[in-house]
User: Fold this.
Amino acid sequence: MTEEENSEMDPAAEALMKQALESVERITEERKGQEEGGAPAEEGAAPAGEAAKPAAAGPSEIERLRGTLERVDGVRKELQEKWLKSAAELEKLNGQVKDLNDKYLRSVADFDNFRKRVQRERSDLAKYGGEQLARQIVSVVDNFERAIGAAGDPAKLDPTFARFVEGIRMTRLQFLQALASAGVQPFESVGRPFDPAVHQAMSQTATAEAAPNTVLSEMQRGYMIHDRLLRPAMVVVARAPEESGGAEGAPAAPNGSGEEPPAGQ
Assistant:
């Protein structure tokens, strides 16, 4: 039996083993003493010239010792089986603990992602919640601007009509201020390079007065809501003028081929 197995025995097994060892030591000492000194002469003892034979252990003592050893061996096997069963159960429990720990970590990560997503959606709702309403209001502002533009030069208007146009202009300004409080601002496009992210090209105009791909005019103003595009600007974009195929004012060939007629004709 190894030291590890001895250390795993319960007190009952250790007591049985100790009892068995004491019995073996006692029998060994008795035999050793008989071999060294011999038993005293008694009636029916062997003659003086014959060597005394060691007394053998009685059958009852040997049977008792054998039974003790068998019980000890049985206890050892039972403890070993319990230890193996406990080790298997411990391994199973360790696996369950690992699975539960993995599930816990995944749950924590999922909840953290959910919390961040809700926080982001709440922030977006606060910033862009009025996006649809803002689109409708900027369309109203467009109509005010069209009305102001159709009225013409205020200096040439009838005073009564001029006051009416001025009221429309002030109402437009109030709408723009309300939009600005919600983070909606128009952006300038004329004179800037065409940007497909914020501009919608409606037509192109050949001109030498502006660089190609430059916005010449706005057909409809664009708006931003915070850092997001609310509505693109509808613009007219400049392109390079076409180069003429020949010299200006050059007469066309009679045959239309561009070749000069032969001499003498």
About this structure: Confidence is low (pLDDT under 50) at residues 1-6, 39-55, 245-265. The helical segments are 3-7, 11-37, 59-128, 131-151, 159-181. Strands lie at 184-187, 199-206, 215-220, 222-225, 228-231, 233-239. The longest strand covers residues 199-206.
